[in-house]
Structures are given as structure tokens and as C-alpha cells.
Specification:
The complex is a heterodimer of chains A (115) and B (113). Chain A is mainly β and 115 residues long. Chain A has strands spanning 3-5, 10-14, 19-21, 24-26, 33-38, 44-50, 56-58, 64-68, 73-78, 87-94, 103-105, 109-114. Classes of the chains: A mainly beta (115), B mainly beta (113).
């Protein structure tokens, strides 16, 4: 069965510093990986995805993620954090069996950017 | 920009009552999903729906749950006899043909008393 793991429940970073939110995956075959963000009382917003191609994927709001096949990781990064980036971040992998393409989510990482 | 919408934003019900959660997916999308998130836990897949039938469902989606697309715009999740453990945030999502990106609604918070 496929899965993703987010080893950190909480990440704190100072505004202006680079941020990394970690994600590792376990799938058979090539993974389809996603990052979503959830602001308080809001739904999940799509940030970026990796399907194939360049290992560095750029997404919304200045975020990017690096796919590393040897380390089975897909860490989310941003060069300079903003206070408004504070939110709950979810890594997800797409199911490769069946036609529905449902997502399996990690447990989430709460990012707090301190002013 | 088109969005997935969900109503109500918060539903409070008594145990054993039926609830219907409503979603309006993005208009040209063909694949629809329900997920739930129990407080403090991860987002879990419940069911997917395509071409007026269920395409996949998880173990969570038992006989108490049903989905329907009653018209060309709404997509509903019904829980026939709610239990305390059904209390969660329920998210609807949709995607179009040929893409893997799902777009999520803001969620309905269901509280079962």
C-alpha cells in the first residue's frame, strides 16, 4: 500500500528565512506527489505536484518542492518565508491502482512563521 | 476563478439522525470525491464518483454512507444514521479529465451529539 510520512508535526521559522517541510513516500512504481495547504477554517488548496520531469517543481506562492527518488522524499521549500505562509501543509500521493486517482495524505505539518 | 463550494459550513446533529452534506463541484469537472478529516488526524479518502456511479470507496464508506449527483451541479454525501465517530470535517473535491489535480471545497464541519 502507498503512504506518505511527514515526520514533523510542527515547524517554526523566522520570517525571511528559508523553510523546509519534509515528506517521504512509499509507493510501488513511480510516484505522483502533491502538496496542499490548509489555512484556518478553509479547505485544502493545491500548491504543486510532481508527475514526471524535472526534480524541482515550482508551485504557487513561491513554493517549490524537490523530488528525490533515491531518498524517496518530496520536501517542500521556500527561499524566504512570510508570516502569511503560516498554515497546515499536507503531502499526498496519488493512488496508482484503479481509475479513481484518489489521494493518500500525510498527517500534516503545522508551519509557523515568526515575525 | 472557479471554486468547489460546500454547504452547510457547519452541521450539528443528534446521533442516529440522517444528514446530507452538499457540494457543488467546478462546472466542467467530471470526477468527484469525498474525504474526511477527524480533528487532529489526517485527511482520509471516502469515495470517488464518476459517470453517475461510485468508482472507488474506502473501508470507511460503509452502508451508512451514500453519494448522489441529483442534478447537473450538486454532489451529495448522505449519512443515514450518524454516530459520534462521524464527527469530522468533510471535504468535497473534483477534477477534470486528464489531470490529477483535485480541487477541494472549504469543508463541512459535522458535529454529532
Amino acid at each position: 500500500a502507498q503512504s506518505v510520512a511527514q515526520p514533523e508535526d510542527q515547524v517554526n521559522v523566522a520570517e525571511g528565512n528559508p523553510l523546509t517541510v519534509k515528506c517521504t513516500y512509499s509507493v510501488s512504481g513511480n510516484p505522483y506527489l502533491f502538496w496542499y495547504v490548509q489555512y484556518p477554517n478553509r479547505g485544502l488548496q493545491f500548491l504543486l505536484k510532481y508527475i514526471t520531469g524535472d526534480n524541482l517543481v515550482k508551485g504557487s506562492y513561491g513554493f517549490e518542492a524537490e523530488f528525490n527518488k533515491s531518498q524517496t522524499s518530496f520536501h517542500l521549500k521556500k527561499p524566504s518565508a512570510l508570516v502569511s505562509d503560516s498554515a497546515l501543509y499536507f503531502c499526498a500521493v496519488r493512488d496508482r491502482t484503479g481509475s479513481a486517482r484518489q489521494l493518500t495524505f500525510g498527517s500534516g505539518t503545522q508551519l509557523t512563521v515568526l515575525p | 476563478e472557479p471554486e468547489v463550494t460546500q454547504t452547510p459550513s457547519h452541521q450539528v446533529t443528534q446521533m442516529g439522525q440522517e444528514v446530507i452534506l452538499r457540494c457543488v463541484p467546478i462546472s466542467n469537472h467530471l470526477y468527484f470525491y469525498w474525504y474526511r478529516q477527524i480533528l487532529g488526524q489526517k485527511v482520509e479518502f471516502l469515495v470517488s464518483f464518476y459517470n453517475n456511479e461510485i468508482s472507488e470507496k474506502s473501508e470507511i464508506f460503509d452502508d451508512q454512507f451514500s453519494v448522489e449527483r441529483p442534478d447537473g451541479s450538486n454532489f451529495t454525501l448522505k449519512i443515514r444514521s450518524t454516530k459520534l465517530e462521524d464527527s469530522a470535517m468533510y471535504f468535497c473535491a473534483s477534477r477534470t479529465e486528464g489531470t490529477d489535480t483535485q480541487y477541494f471545497g472549504p469543508g463541512t464541519r459535522l458535529t454529532v451529539l
